[in-house]
Amino acid sequence: MVDEKIIEALKKTRDTKKRNFKQSFDLAINLKNIDLKKPENRIKTEVRLLHGPGKETKIGVIVDSLLPQANNIENIVVIKKDQLALFGKNKKEARKIAKECRYFLAEAPLMPLVGKNLGPILAPRNLMPLPIPPNANLGAMVNEKRSVLKIQLKEAPTIHVGVGTEDMDDQKIAENVDAVIKNVISKLPKGKEQVKNYVIKLTMGKPVKFRL
After folding, report:
1. Based on the domain organization, do 119 and 153 belong to the same domain?
2. Could you read off the pLDDT tens digit of each residue along the chain, which spans 212 residues?
3. DSSP string, 21-72
4. Which domain holds residue 124?
5. What CATH number is attached to the domain comprising 49?
């Protein structure tokens, strides 16, 4: 069951001027008493948003033999095997593709080439592809990953993630928030004790702080 404090924070966040575009809800989890110089404390996890992010998510799919399957899937960015070397030479284009996609999948045999050519750009952004197993249903994998967030804690003790859009109802956004919070807490060495507070805001709105 979702804590009512999350619902209350969302309602306060909506008390803002309407904009001419669909705003996103962003969640910040501020941590305390965590030594990020220790590699084991740098959280790296994935969480599935129960109700999706509220907007279409582009998945980058790096393929060779699965190209016919990939060409039949909507709203993905298809990267062919012979394009990988081009990204290795053109860092500007590599950064562009990294910005365009929130998640990447790649045929397992292509992973060494991906690491060589796109790794320097994708790895620091926590975007290294998930290998596609042999005989996998590519369409099903893509649909599953559209609702998945990658979370990584690096130098700063704060995690920022998008959890929905303003056209979603508060209950669904709250359930997304709850899923993220529970996932992060489960990865912290001392759990909830290391959470300072949470902050939720719309893209152009004022931040609303809350504790659970």
Report:
1. no
2. 899 999 999 999 998 888 889 999 999 999 999 999 998 899 999 999 999 998 888 999 999 999 999 999 999 999 999 999 999 999 999 999 999 999 999 999 999 999 999 999 999 999 999 999 988 899 999 999 999 999 999 889 999 999 999 999 999 999 999 999 999 999 999 999 999 999 999 999 999 999 99
3. S--EEEEEEEE-S--TTSGGGS-EEEEE-TT--SS---EEEEESTTHHHHTT
4. 59-145
5. 3.30.190.20
